[in-house]
Amino acid sequence: MSKPHTLTAFDEDLNRIRELILGMGGRVEEAITLASRALESRDEELAAEVVQGDKAIDAMEDDIDHQVVRLLALRQPQAQDLRAVIAVMKMAADLERLGDYAKNMAKRVPVLASGPQIEGAGAAIRRQARQVGQMLKDMLDAFARQDVALAEDVIARDAEIDHMTNALFREFITHMMEDPRIISACLHYTFIAKNVERMGDLVTGAAEQVVYLATGQKPGDRVKGASTATLDVALGDED
To answer: What backbone phi and psi angles, to 5 degrees, belong to 108?
Structure first.
């Protein structure tokens, strides 16, 4: 008679963790939106709010980690149940890193606001970040509904982010060649664009966890856009 009770208790605990993941994801989505808005408008006050708000995201990851450890200790899940626990742990880590990238974008706002304005640069980054934000929203919806098709669609869209990043790199290089006085500002924007691309990779990784969670199978190799490795080396950024 105890086995059904144990299974029910595990499901209830896991559902609570899933709700925490969705709440954390919502906060991260908001941070990406606000950071990119602050960058475009050169709003230092809004940027500071994003930086400060990252503490709440970190605290949410700590709470999820605590709940996962508690679940492992009390329920000792096996096979499929253990797979679900591992998936949510990885998703929480991905969301925390997404929050860090949003924070880092916001931290560059005061530097860029005090320098020359690069026409259209902030708006272009915001469009790129908006795409990532939509991918994140859809990934969270896929996670909530165990929607494999939607998760796979998110994975496929990562190539769009790669193409956008490469287009931005070419644009910033052109600006630097035309006016050496704006090289510093363009390098900041280049690093931000690269970080937004990494945000797309993290969302894609989380979507892959959704597929794995729902099917038990890892997705095949994803289609990537043209490599930015050459520029990464030139910038001393090979991660």
So the answer is: -85, -10
* Span 77-130, pLDDT tens digits: 777 788 888 889 999 999 999 999 999 999 999 999 999 989 899 999 999 999
Q: How many CB atoms are closer than 10 A to CB 5?
A: 9
Non-local (6+) Cβ contacts of 4 within 8 A are none
| Sign of the torsion angle spanned by Cα atoms 178, 180, 182, 183 | positive
236 sits in the region (left: phi over 0; alpha: psi -120 to 50; else beta) called left
Closest by CA to 96, choosing from 153, 20, 15, is 20
Distance (Å, whole) CA 188 – CA 42 = 13
Task: Find how far residue 44's CA is from the centre of its chain.
Answer: 22
> What is the average pLDDT score of the chain?
89
pLDDT computed for residue 149 by the predictor: 97
Outline where 42-120 has alpha helix (H): 44-75, 79-107, 109-113
Cα 191 to Cα 113, 121, 187, 206, distances in angstroms: 16, 12, 6, 23
**CA–CA dist 71, 37 (Å, integer):** 39
